[in-house]
Amino acid sequence: MENNNRRNFLKKGVLSGVALFASSAIGSVAQASRTNERIKEKENPTKNKTRFLGAGDHRIEVSPLGLGCMGMSYHRSFIPDKNAMIKLMRRAADLGVNLFDTAEAYGPVLNEKLVGEGLQPIRKDIVLCTKFGFIDGRPEIGLDSSPKRIRQVVENSLKNLRTDYIDLLYQHRIDPKIPIEEVAGTVKDLITEGKVKHFGMSERDFNASDDGLNAIRKAHAVQSITAIQSEYSVMTRNPENGVLDLCEELGISFVPYSPLSRGLISGYINERTKYNSANDNRTSLPRYKSENIIANWKIIDILKEFGDNRGLTVAQVALAWLLANKPFIVPVPGTTKLAHLQENMWAADYEFDPEEIKRLTDDLTAVEIVGERYTTGYPGRPEK
Length: 384
Hints:
Blueprint: H1 2-43, E1 51-53, E2 60-62, E3 67-68, H2 82-94, E4 99-101, H3 110-119, E5 127-132, H4 147-160, E6 166-171, H5 180-192, E7 196-202, H6 210-222, E8 225-231, H7 243-250, E9 253-257, H8 290-295, H9 297-308, H10 314-325, H11 338-346, H12 354-365
Parallel strand pairs: 3-4, 4-5, 5-6, 6-7, 7-8, 8-9
Antiparallel strand pairs: 1-2
Helix pairs in contact: 2-3, 5-6, 9-10
């Protein structure tokens, strides 16, 4: 009897020990899992950050930086392997990018087809942007934003992009032959039909005259504009002359294209860089002439000095500066390289203090940029 009691006591002790060990092990696993999640968040904090394009019913939640896809097949001298670019787009989504930008005119249509194939498996998880505005998608022929052409482009883009709706449809360039109210009205009808979700406008120089700003107001009165897209960088600051103020007034977001000035600001290209004129517009842009690149290198020196002291690359400083200017700014830098994609995204993690952003801006403003962005009479070519 005594032996039986002893055996039962030992058995209960063993079972209690097993239960305690199991409970402890499960707790340890759960704790380890939570720790790993926190580590992942710290490794990629950008993935947890968002910004908004537009306001009210016309607002879209997006990543702090998007991805301009044009250079994956058009206008950047070389054309990378298609499978590598598809892998890059999908990897961008894994890293937290959800805003992808293309246009009918990039190719034409070749870039839309690439983007459509690359993003089809994750279509519902991303925000897809494209553009209309040229005759047959060819800027060198001329502008066409007639209602018939807009509808034709949308139908073609839906097929190219392998989707049944476009999240953000931009007018690529203002067509002076077609009243902007008519353009906005056509997009409004497409939104009602469910083929388009939001309306945007893209223009080289909205602020070149009051006409550009008035066009935004007139279009917005017909169909709320979610985003304005135009070139903006530490080297090209034209939108500061009225466009950004108007965006803030109307609740419109601003999407800078070429935020790294077609690679120039990153230091990836220099005065010795050779371009393929058959697939690169930089050969005709004054700012990319060797002597002008050398003259404007002061900008890169300023960015480098700032970044060297803070563990940032030149490109990261340039992008962080844009993000710090206004909360409604969402740049769409283009890249064909995974390392540059990750580098660009990490720019969103840097937060300036008021004094250093003022000092950096003052230093950049003191540099007089040499060379125009475009030659006189340069056609309304699309680019990112």
